[in-house]
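By convention, each integer encodes one residue's backbone shape. The lines below illustrate.
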Amino acid sequence: MKIQWAVLLVLLLVCDWRVKADGSDHRYKEGDRVPLYANKVGPFHNPSETYRYYDLPFCSPDHVIEKKEALGEVLNGDRLVDAPYELNFREDRESTTICEKSLSEKDIAKLRNAVAKDYYFQMYYDDLPFWGFIGKVDKDNLDPSEYKYLLFKHIHFDIFYNDDRVIEISVQTDPNLTVDITEDKAVDVMFAYSVTWKNTDIPFEKRMEKYSKSSSLPQHLEIHWFSIINSCVTVLLLTGFLATILMRVLKNDFVKYSHDEESLEDQEETGWKYIHGDVFRFPKYKSLFSAVIGSGTQLLTLAMFIFLLALVGVFYPYNRGALFTALVVIYALTSGIAGYIATSFYKQLEGTNWVRNLLLTGCLFCGPLFLTFCFLNTVAIAYNATAALPFGTILVILLIWTLVTSPLLVLGGIAGKNSKTEFQAPCHTTKYPREIPQLPWYRGTVPQMAMAGFLPFSAIYIELYYIFASVWGHKIYTIYSILFIVFIILIIVTAFITVALTYFQLAVEDHEWWWSHSSWNCGNMWQMIERLREIHKDDHPLTIIFQFHPASFCSSLCSLMLKFSLGKQECHVLQGC
């Protein structure tokens, strides 16, 4: 066990090791070199599709030096290289030439295609991100065939400083200093830049606040709080509804049974009382059922740890790769929870092949995610996109899964197998199951899925919008406290809906309730379909493929297992009745 922890520590140190530049302490003297890295380029309307900065024919040094990156940065698609600009601390520059480059017809065609798709570039200056466009399309009420494609050849940097620290940077392009690249002909271009330094009173500790202002403006906060109030009203209505069911209907039945048991022997039982001998019959595919419960519990634990780190301020804006690193490490360390819960519950259901159950638990989430990753990574490699993971990163993830995740999963499974917990049903299960009566159409799987997913989705749809806007757009989500409140409300609503629908199912004498509410993800799928409808029209395959990268697939699969696990646990409330 100590060896596995040591291996994980070494891997994390290797992944998080980075080159210490002169700006490691973010303090500089006049004339000092401040680290400037070019990250990536890509179409503005699809931030998921990005390429290396020097994939476009910009001015580049003879030997491009790549910055050593952490595991999370690589997973995030960051590929930092030295930029061709020299922005020394507090040194103004007037139209400094970078290089004079001869652009061939092939280069012109590549740049024109990039300008037509509104390509932008991203750079980091002293760990401060900034963006700019590489060109523009001059339309001027012209026919699309007469559009002019202009390439910016001059960039101006405005840099703000406070004492010996860099506080803010912005980039501007001069629309008058452009090169016409409309026609396919070779062009000689002289690329240049200028720098202006300005003093500011903003302290160094608050220099990142401007990146999170868009999500914390007063009008945005009002929308978030309105969402929370709406969700709380939903919870109150569900609470009253369930109180009516549990406190009136079931209580009257219990009182009736306890005071007049002899007279009830001659009466025909109906509803949920009629199937009391079948309701605790073990479900079909109990190995898969237990694996889903174990994986869902692990993902719930993972979500709680991520929220804890977010609330203490670990995931501040543009802390590159911190979220992905935390996801990989915490998922590896919580795999023992999945093994213990899955195997323990499987043994309670009188399962015998616990080894197969453990293997299924280990592959249930990682298997589909790995297949999706292989497909998307292959496409990304074919198009030379930054979303493609290098072989070294893939090897590190496989080592973490092999040396940490798998052993902890096995240890949790052994502990679960040896646990003495038994499944104690409050009533005897009959030998033969009763026949389920024919049910109306609205009791079918699809209507029940829609009903089960509508209220949880309505409780989180506003926050879901902002999250997807940050995943597939240029917005940043930073209000983790409100997101945590909404997450707790989602758990409560899911639990209440599970109890209510399980009661309704048992009331119509349908005792196969174990798998009935396994598909709680219809709300997320609805949003995914809406997102697919809103994708802008683009013939490039990556535009559609990268809209559904592993982050989206992972979130959907996580939500399905997590909600199913929550629903299963809350069904015990009704069992106890």
User: Anything to note?
Assistant: The longest helix spans residues 218-259. Confidence is low (pLDDT under 50) at residues 2-23, 519-557, 560-577. The CA atoms of residues 109 and 184 lie 7 Å apart.
